[in-house]
Amino acid sequence: MKSAYLDGELCAFDTEGVPVFSRLQAAMDEGRTDQLVYVLFDILHLNGKDLSDRPLIDRKKILEKALGADRPGLRYSGHIIGDGPRFLAQACNARLEGIISKRLDQPYAPGNRGIWVKAKCLNREEFVVVGWSDPAGSRGYIGALLLGYYDTSGRLHYAGRAGTGLSGAELKRLHTLLTPLQVQKMPVIAPPPRESRFGSPLRLSKVHWVRPQVVVEVTYLTWTEEKLLRHVAYLGQREDKPARQVVRSVPQAASSL
After folding, report:
1. Burial letters for 158-174: b for 16+ Cβ neighbours within 10 Å, e otherwise?
2. What pTM, to 2 d.p., does this model score?
3. By three-state DSSP, how is residue 77 classified?
4. For the segment 45-95, what is each residue's pLDDT rounded down to a tens digit?
5. CATH of domain 123-245
6. With respect to CATH, is domain 4-120 assigned 3.40.50.410?
7. With left for phi above 0 and alpha for psi between -120 and 50, is residue 150 left, alpha or beta?
């Protein structure tokens, strides 16, 4: 292979060989790129020849052959044909964020254009509301709910924010519910980070802390290396579960696609 135009994704892997997006971000920020791997899943040109009009399955075969033996920093991305639901379940069990399914018979096209679908491994759990942030712009009542959980020693940890999935009526209802629970002292054992790679900065002066009594259910994609929830969406309040029963071990950072 003298020259090629390749398509792939730069990844950072944990000790078990699972890609972790937050590790990639940290490596890029700190200039520690020697351990990063470029995972290749398509080839558009090879030695001056345009391959973009060939079906994906043909391009994958050409790519695998062109790579040959393992090259430092490069890795061929294999594939499974058919049985998507079972493969997705296996990916979720392996702590991946999900899978991408592509049409084998299609030529290359930038962007989606209907020829590939992303299926995410969404998690669903309960968390304790420890506060809320002030809204911005035209949003009313609450910017985001601040979430927490108890560990097995009874300490309350900050877990992240839920700002999506809240209707105007639900924002008003939750604001009415939480306002009488306001306290001056932060209920979690450590203050939330003011900045994160996965979200807007949190201004603690704009946070209203509350007694940890309200339990809500959310979906989330993964935990980051900072032990914070990523891609959180509010589902609803859980009135059937006392806050003190929201107990879990300190989470492990999860992985990326």
Report:
1. bbbbbbeebeeeebeeb
2. 0.69
3. coil
4. 999 999 999 999 999 999 999 988 767 889 999 999 988 899 999 888 887
5. 2.40.50.140
6. no
7. beta
